[in-house]
Write the structure tokens for this entry.
Amino acid sequence: MLTLARRNLFKGRGRLAISIGGIAFVVTLMMLVSGLYLAFDQKIRSFYDGMRVDAWVVQRGTTDKLGDSVLSDTLGKTLRKIPGVVEVIPYTTRIVSFRLGHEDVEILLMGFDPAQAGPNTGPLRMDSGRRSIGGDEIIVDKVFAHGNGLSLGDKLRIFGQELTVTGISSGGDLVSYQTGYVTNHRIRELLGDEHLVNAYLLRLQPGTDLSAVKADIEAVTDRKDVRSMAKIVEQNGRTIREGFLPVLKVLLTIGFCVGVAVVGLTISSTVIEHRREYGVLKALGARPLQMLVVVMVQALTAAVAGYLAGVGVSLLAARAAETLVPQFITSFTVSGTLAIGAAALGMGLFAALMPLRSIARVDAAIVFRA
């Protein structure tokens, strides 16, 4: 059986190449799409985790973007008196739209204190320029800068006020929008409210019980919500999960079906072409399930070879795509890659079942026909 499988496999090298290519294409699609989703999820998580805070205080009922949360600028003094609270950082942000060249663009504008150590509400990493900006300056994320052809020294006019790009950062691409950073005073001036604060970020003493801090804050404030960092990450990642996961599932399902169809059709054509060999096996007493082993060896060989080729192509394609389009990032994990490998084997197994009916209907008498 194995000898016939090996001979049929390499005799039809063109069909074998088609089968391997089909599986490789599907594996590449699965790898890139799932890697893109995982990278987007990790990107949002690392953005908020990079602020290195323990909890957020927001207005009750606030959505994930936090722009609809409005707090008093005097609340910070109250929060600093809560036992266990080490540092209180005001956070003001808004998605703003402005004219850049001949297009309207959007950016998530965030205020921060350039004199304060650590990332906090400022840029996570600086790629070029400086972090210590003044009131008429702005730092933009490298993805936003690349997508709009910006460089250091360029001017942005936001709400009628001109800001000079003096820094380009990384880590602030949040998939659907990118971040820009100005001073706390400047963002409030741009938004027309010098007392505007959307949230307060809290750093707690090591070992402090967050639930106790939350109870103390809610006892002295009205209609405020204390959220852990995990809750903030979960809320902001919801957009990715709800918008991306359904599409991901559809694409993976279609890809799986395409892989099964490509391998199954090529294997079926091989069975038809070599029906005399299958007739000989049947005349010698082989049962359909025994002859199915021949088909399964061919299908699984194509699946394994296609999987290995697809993994290699995925790694090269991901690197090339990220170089050309910074927004396109992927993250591959061992578990995810093995899961796709199991899917490739599943394609081979399902494909092997497609010609089962043709094998069962092979007439042993075909051996004696001219």
